[in-house]
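Data card: per-record layout.
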Amino acid sequence: MTMKEAVIAFWMKGFDFSGRARRSEVWLNILANVIIGFLIGMLSLVIDAVTGWRLHIAEHFSFFMETIFPSVVLIPGMAQASRRLHDINLDGRIAIVITVASALIDFAVKHKSFFPLNFEKSGVMIIFSVILGIGGFCLFIVNFIKGHTGANQYGPDPKVI
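The structure for this 161-residue chain is written out next.
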């Protein structure tokens, strides 16, 4: 699988939580996002430097990368993580639960005025963050594990197809 094919598969299967995803599909898509983000970031810094820092392009890029981009890739990312878990014969709902819970924790931290509890003093936020951090780390490790050889309950082996 090429990087182009991995990115196309990410967006074409963005709402498909069934089937299986190979390691190369996941890692090449991550690599493409890192490369594109780096190049656009460098371009925004160059444009800011050339214009004497009047346009604040780098600030707009930072806003895009911290808010808009994660919102756009949230569901396709969950779908890909779910398919990756299927490839090692695990339930894909694990990825959905961890992703949604992480998004809720992130929202709670950024918008403290919506919640009547003081999470910092109660320690609840720290406990949730540690648990979700461990879960996120486990999802990261899953991307290194070789997929189940042959068909499993989630579909045929993607290496064979």
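Known properties of this structure: Residues 3-142 form one domain. The two ends are 12 Å apart (CA to CA).

See the next section for split statistics.
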